[in-house]
Q: What sequence folds into this?
């Protein structure tokens, strides 16, 4: 998948779901593997773009649940009237591919800063 970056916009990239950990009956942690992931920092968010078979696109933003230096993960709570969370908590399976983009800590848009070394 080709990546594009424009100042102030997100850089979308493909990610594969590598694991799912049920936390409660309504909460699941989703582990992701975006091959070109530059790393993340505390406070960053991950935007997720899901495309239905009929072409409908839904985008949501989730706080990154994994610590810097650990594999990328988000934790999602199912909302009974939600459009995306029921799919993520009940139907999503490992090996599913989707698009994601990181938001910088403390900003509303942008690409992730380079992690401290």
A:
């Amino acid at each position: 998948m080709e990546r594009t970056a424009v100042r102030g916009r997100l850089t979308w990239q493909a990610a594969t779901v590598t694991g799912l950990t049920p936390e409660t009956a309504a909460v699941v942690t989703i582990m992701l593997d975006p091959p070109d992931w530059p790393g993340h920092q505390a406070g960053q968010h991950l935007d997720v773009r899901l495309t239905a078979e009929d072409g409908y696109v839904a985008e949501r933003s989730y706080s990154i649940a994994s610590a810097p230096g650990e594999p990328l993960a988000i934790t999602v709570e199912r909302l009974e009237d939600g459009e995306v969370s029921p799919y993520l908590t009940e139907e999503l399976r490992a090996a599913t591919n989707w698009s994601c983009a990181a938001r910088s800590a403390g900003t509303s848009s942008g690409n992730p800063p380079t992690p401290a070394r």
